UniProtKB/TrEMBL annotation:
One of its GO terms (biological process) is dATP catabolic process. The keyword Transferase does not apply. CDD domains: NTP-PPase_MazG_Nterm (cd11528). Keywords: Hydrolase. InterPro entries: 4pyrrol_Methylase_sf, 4pyrrole_Mease_sub1, MazG-like_dom, NTP-PPase_MazG-like_N, NTP_PyrPHydrolase_MazG. This is XTP/dITP diphosphohydrolase. The keyword Transcription does not apply. One of its GO terms (molecular function) is methyltransferase activity.
Amino acid sequence: MAHRLTLLLSSPRVAPGLLTRDAWDVLASAAAVLARDEDEAQAVAVAESGMPVAHVGAEHPAVLARLLADRADQGEVVWLGSADGDPGLTDALAAEVSRRPEPPEVEVLVGSWDVPGSRLLDLVAVMDRLRTPGVCPWYAEQTHESLLPYLIEEAYEVVEAIESGDRAHMLEELGDLLFQVAFHARVAAEDPAAPFDVDDVAAALVDKLVRRNPHVFADVEAETAEDVTANWEAIKAQEKPHRDSPLDGIPAGLPALARADKVLSRLERAGAAQVATDATAGEDVGAQLLALVARARAAGVDAEAALRATLREVEAQVRADGA
């Protein structure tokens, strides 16, 4: 008789029951399948497949290790790992097995792994917890409007992190920006008149990306980046036929240099570049600034980014001088 204890580990971010063939084979040949609680998702899925699962309840790791080793002395036993990872169990099992003169064989079998993007489910769960009534008064009272300053601030901090070249800083700031998206989606889910959630946000984005990239997802040809941009703009124009001006849709809150660059780009595509040329002919400061943005565009330079870079140099020099 085989005396083996298999610790079957699986990702809580993957639907229960989606296990490897090896995992199902081990379950089918086991003399006993054990789990902590009857409501453990993986235990429910295994039981629903027709395999009996015994529940041992919450035990101290040392007690649980002894119980599992005792059962393994009677044949092949599978322990369905709990969603929290059974903290302390592996150390307790090592101690239990090492003190036995004829210990059972212990095997760790991974039945499922996280898929790319699965940690986004953790973000949604954390956001749901933070927003749950009675948990945190600050999170509970936030609205789309109250969160706007944070959204703008986080977007600029992402820009700063990218331009700094600090990868750890970039990772952190992208996370903060992602959190703002998750927060707004969670608030939106509570709207009594027109609710939507993070899945709706993601679905709308996927639909848009597929629709606006027919060279990838359909049979449209686009050999250059310029072709891709032209296709995107043509499809966008069909989707938003209500726009009366090529300047519609440019956010008024953009920084002035970035907004000027966007306006010039739209006028060029609309065949109205002369309007911009006339505007840059003036002697006032605004016209001269617009002319500088036009020069930057012609040189392939992002005026907003160029000014930020110069300001960083100034700030670095001031700090170096101790001023």
